[in-house]
Design brief:
The protein has about 300 residues and is an alpha/beta fold. Helices cover about 45% and strands about 10% of the residues. The chain has 2 domains: about 170 residues, NAD(P)-binding Rossmann-like Domain (Rossmann fold, 3-Layer(aba) Sandwich), CATH 3.40.50.720; about 90 residues, N-(1-d-carboxylethyl)-l-norvaline Dehydrogenase, domain 2. It contains 13 helices and 9 strands.
Length: about 300
Amino acid sequence: MRIGFIGLGTMGQHMATHVLEADHEVAVHDLRREAGKIHEAAGATWANTAAHAADGAEVVFTSLPGPSDVESVALGENGLLPAMQPGAVWFDLSTNSPTVVRRLHARFAESGIHMLDAPVSGGPHGARSSRLAIWVGGDEAVFNRYRPLLEAIGDQPMYIGPIGTGTVAKLVHNMATFAVQTALAEVFTLGVKGGVEPLALFKAIRYGASGRMRTFDRLLDQFLPGQFDQPSFTLRLAQKDVKLANELAKEIGVPMPLGELTLAELTEALERGWGDRDARVAMLLQEERTGLDIHVPEEQLREFRG
């Protein structure tokens, strides 16, 4: 296929290389001329503009820093929209705004061009080794048609749903990642200031119950099936432990804004009379606030259980 690849930064440079290695005819473009040298050496054509990269391409990939960059490349002078032909496909690999994605999708659809959001996860190492998750939103038939091309970039391309849902999934993933990071910074400083040597503390939490389990796997046990009445750890005990941790933080002068929020959530759930249910029943408070009732049938969860 004739492929246009725009954005040869930390992630894009490796993904463009893998597309080349799959024996496609590739035109590359980046704001930095030197970024395309390695791709030219491997057989790619340098394009002076995004439009030039997209001209005649069956598929265009963009890997750009953010929403304004994507809009500029899509709609700006020498951009994608006037250069792409009806029936062509654009996969935006950037971490974007769902609102921007849906707006661009509508604009390109008017010209008969398929736009799909396809943000990736795996970092530079994953991009280099093709071990990337690619979360795709848009036309499922288009996704299925070009799945082999996506598999040249990442080992886990998956269809998420309608346009924009791939980007929503990416934002949820990254928000969870950095929220956990913030929580770990908070509790780790509590442990060290409380007198535990840092490596010993790491070993303790790494080999505890939570440390032995992948973070998101815990969603399978209670939250996704909506079952909280066979507790593995009761809310009453969880609230007691979190209260003790917050008391320790106050004693030794460790700010714990997330710890205080966690205690408030568990206490509110406890006051609902849920003390003997699993501690994760407190997650129902957020469901109530958002007007959701999340329940995934057990048969759909079996493939994810160890």
